[in-house]
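Look over this record before class:
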Amino acid sequence: VRRLAEEPVEIAAPLLTRSNALSDIDLIALIGRHGLPHARAIARRKELNPTIADLIRALERPTLVKTRPPETVTKLTPKSEPVAKADADRAA
């Protein structure tokens, strides 16, 4: 069953929507490997784990994920160290 579930969604869809042999972990792994096509087939399962359903919704609408705007980077100029003076002190 797992091997067939790895096939293209046209072949795997009946298993993805109905098979009890696939655990939640298997379903998440399949979504991770095959992306949205497999996720859409898995979403049609009758008793789908709510967490997996949330994952599929997030994949369907990635704009729902809030991201922070990039912060401005403050460039700091390095402080000049009196290297020459320290070397001169050691030589003396």
In short: The helical segments are 2-5, 9-18, 24-34, 36-42, 50-60, 83-91. Residues 2-64 form one domain.
